[in-house]
Hints:
By secondary structure, this protein is mainly α. It is 67% helix and 1% strand. It has 44 helices and two strands. A hairpin with a 2-residue loop joins β1 and β2 (281-283). α21 packs parallel to α24 (413-429), α23 (399-407) runs parallel beside α26 (443-453) and α27 (498-514) runs parallel beside α30 (543-556). The protein is elongated and about 120 Å long.
Amino acid sequence: MIAEDDLLPYLRSDDRHGQLGALRSLKNSVIGHSDQKASYLDRGVLDDLLAIIGTPQDGVKDPIFDECRIQAGVVLGSFAYSDLEISSRLITPATLSTLVKVLTQYSPPALLIASLRTLTALLTLRLTPSLVQQFPDLAKSLSELISHYSTACFANYARQDEQVLTNLCALVPLISPSHSSAQSVSAELTGPLFDLVYGSLKSSQTSGVVFNSKLKSTAILALAHVLTPTAAREIAAAGPKFTSPLLALLRAPDTSTRLSAASLLTALYTSGKPEITSASGVTRAPQITTLALTLVPTLMKLLDDAIAAPDQGRKCDPRILHTLAILCREGGNVTDRCVEAGLIKKIVSIIVQVAPNNHFASRRILESDGKLLSSSLLCLSALGLYNEDYRKAIIEAGALSVVVTVMNTANTPAIREVKIAACHVLRTLSRSVRLLRTTMVESGVVCGIVDLLGDAPSEEERPLLENVDNVGSEPEQMDDEPVHTTVTEVAAEEDEEEEDLEVRTAAMAAVCNLVLDFSPLRKPILDKGILPLVVSGARSRYTPLRLNSTWALKHMVFGDDMETKACVMSHLGFPLIIKLCDDKEIQVQEQALDFLRNLTARSETYIDMLFDNVGVDEVFRLVDRKLSLLPVPPIDESEQELLSTQPYYTKVIIAAAYIIVHIAAGYDRHRETVIAHATVLRKIVQLMRHENYEVRLACVWTIINLTWVEEPNRAPDDVATARQIHTVSPAGGQSSEQLQQEQSIASFAELYFADIYRRRAMTLIRLGAREQLEYLKQDPVLDVREKTKTAIYQMDSLAGRSSPSAEDEQDIETGLSRGVEVEGGAMEIDSELHA
């Protein structure tokens, strides 16, 4: 036995036997003694342990050296499983790289197990960015290890092989905690994990071998974590031979196995293409819905057992609630069944146990509590996503006060996911106009949102709404900058962790509905100086943040508040929004075009400003590109990612068409500008046969606005043009002669504009608009048919054709479309939950 004071020199010597003895003594000295661990860390023992673990053999097998590495790994694991003060000191680049190196080179199984356990303990603290970002080859190494030990395990069923596999599978969700990082490792890990899971299920059925239940459940959970929609559809294609054993596991005696089976079946359930997506939720094929309803009793029983435990739910497995959240986020029968089973009240009872309102802000949230609280909030968010009554129940249960408290709590690694989940609940509740105008008028919500987005500008930097100058101008550094680069980011995005970007993204999603014109929180949020933060997000390289920021900007210019529009444009400028219209992500394009749609609605000023800053021809070239947009056709339905983007191409067409609707709702010179761009008009006429009724309706609105005649809508310079053409000499000051001159000018102006209107109508007729309108008289959608009658009446009147019948005339709606805006608030906000 080596004395404690003499251990470190032996650890640093080349004498392997002495080194091994020192390591065993060190292990006995530190296990269970935090003060000893802290003392050794102060003396630099971490570097000694890493040097031993990370030194590869030089080609000759040395059992003593292998044992030294194993013992060093065990000791390091003891440090990792200590309290937070000790374990956090291990999270260094050297520690992580050394442990990853063990996974990428030959290492004894016992060292693999020790290293995997240590990595698992350190990554659970969430104090480091995603490992797959730091070590791109890590997923490939894990894939090779899983394949190697799976083969050995099926052949020999060695306990050590099972331990390696169990720890490998447990590590998978931790190296890729976010949704995007999980998708990045899917290609490498889905295959070997599926082989392992399928092999375990098959072995239990055919050979009667009872597979290790912990390994089986851990492998199933790992597969569910990395599953992409495409991979899930391929697995589901295997049919009952894979799903039947999983369904049988829902009746397994141990909780972890039942939960893992439910998690994987949920991933398979949500992977398929929905039959219908509407304001009330997602509708899937009956057999898929039946599968989901089968999962609800299993998950609710697991939750009830946890709540009935002596700790009243404090030790509930967060994955139960996370799985329920995934099931419920699509609304429909599954959500109804969960609410009928009292899920909202049960979740709130857990939240009360984990986060008492009167102590929450100051108490330290442990990692286990943080995960449980975030999963609980995510599930609440999913339950209220599509149902007003459920949102009301969430409010009445007292969840909003917890959300506000969470959002105003100091940032810690453990609280990050909780804040993201709180933002999702806030976003869900803000879908209700009634709640937005009443219960949610909370000053704490505003402060919490701004804090999550970043540092607000100082009072001197905030532009006052009543003192906005240079509307439409752009900062000099924006001139030739691509849309995906940053200029004045609140934080340097290169140094910003993906987890922090996820928090900002979730907060920005919550902002979207809070800044609509009817929201009482709109002015307090803008007064807090949030606008520069939103514009900064629109410049982000991180696509989800860029999308939600553009969405929030779209809502800021919704409505008739010209001061807010001016304030937004003073920060944003036209160059950036035009670049966002051509973003590489189709959803960002949709939001940017909807921004222009809202900006130009009922505003000739901003139509002129758009033309002046961008250029008339460039605006119409942009619209022409978007009206011609076609989705990338998938080879087959297995290309789920391509299939999921197809609806957004139609939404882009709708947004672009309504920009033309709004330009045509301006002055007569604006209508003449539209008429002068025949290429765009031809596209509008062609799209009158589009399969989507909203596209057809937008095209009909364009015709209505181009053929509308209304004296007050003529701009002063339009009338001045008519006066210049018909010049009358002064009449010597006699009032009667002056009156005659004015009457002469008025008569000429009427003839002048009448000729313009007639030529405008004839242009539309030559382009085929009248023929298409005749076809739309039989449209299956009532709104399209009614607007078509109005368009036909106006066009025929200007072209000198016969008057409509008395029946048609009674149905024709009067009134110019002064702008059809899109708020996209209550039901259009992205409803994806973060992984």
